[in-house]
Description:
Helix 1 (2-10) packs across helix 6 (89-102). The protein is globular. The chain has a 3-stranded parallel β-sheet with strand order 1-2-3, covered by helices on one side. It has 6 helices and 3 strands; from the N terminus they run H-H-E-H-H-E-H-E-H. By secondary structure, the chain is mostly helical. Strand 2 (65-68), helix 5 (74-80) and strand 3 (83-84) form a beta-alpha-beta unit.
Amino acid sequence: LISYGIALGRLGWRITFLGADTPIGAIQEMADEIRIDVVVLAATTPVRFANVIEPIRELARDVPVALAGAGANARLATEAGAQLLDGDPVAAAAATAGAVAGA
């Protein structure tokens, strides 16, 4: 996630890293207060996402959400209404920047 953020930063994006175990509610509050182009959540195991799938789905109604890390998979991303970021963090950052610019 940090590599992804660095890559986006080099593309001119402003990045805010909230850290591990940030509650989804706190992310939602931040999204309500400032303009956010995308929220990226990372986990090392799928169970970390599965345990908070409903709050992620609610967040994704208000702001684009992407799931990343070894715990992210296509099924969880679809269930959460999120985009899946997989593979190389630099390529994923370029894809995110392109998708937001095209939106």
